[in-house]
Amino acid sequence: MERPTERIRLARPHLAALDAGAKDLRARLGRGDMMLVGSVVRLHRELPQGLGAVTVAGSFEDRDDGRPRRVRMTLDHHDYSKAAEAHRRGDEVLVRGDLTALGNAPRMENIRSFAVRHVSE
């Protein structure tokens, strides 16, 4: 027997708790196809060739009200070289990929593009 769902009323403290839980879940699950714009602030690679760890300080276009973040990622040799050059010159980088969270640390995974935008002084 089908009948309409009854209305549920929630008090303000319950709404605040539900909102906080939703924000936490979004942070844990991440977001797909995000564009990060910022500056390379950390580079680390064990060997002269191959994969390397990079941290970019920047913000996501059209998301989070431009809130600055430090986002970690692992880049292949080619993109790592571009990141190192951008760091040396003080240029911006544009990274498109999926935002995930590992603990409290945001990460970019499945990177689809890594580009350098020259900043004129």
Q: How would the global form be characterised?
A: elongated
Sheet-strand content, in percent, reads: 35-45%
| Rg value | 19 Å
- Unreliable stretches covering 5 or more consecutive residues: none
Structural class: alpha+beta
DSSP strand tally: 5
Defining key terms:
single chain; 121 residues; alpha+beta; 5-stranded antiparallel sheet; 5 strands; 26% helix; 45% strand; elongated
Walk me through the structure:
By secondary structure, the chain is an alpha+beta fold. It is 26% helix and 45% strand. The chain is built from two helices and five strands; from the N terminus they run H-E-E-E-H-E-E. The protein has a five-stranded antiparallel β-sheet. The longest helix has 18 residues, at 12-29. The radius of gyration is 19 Å and the shape is elongated. The N and C termini lie far apart (71 Å).
SSE topology sketch:
Layout: H1 12-29, E1 31-44, E2 52-60, E3 69-75, H2 77-89, E4 92-102, E5 105-117
Antiparallel strand pairs: 1-2, 1-4, 2-3, 4-5
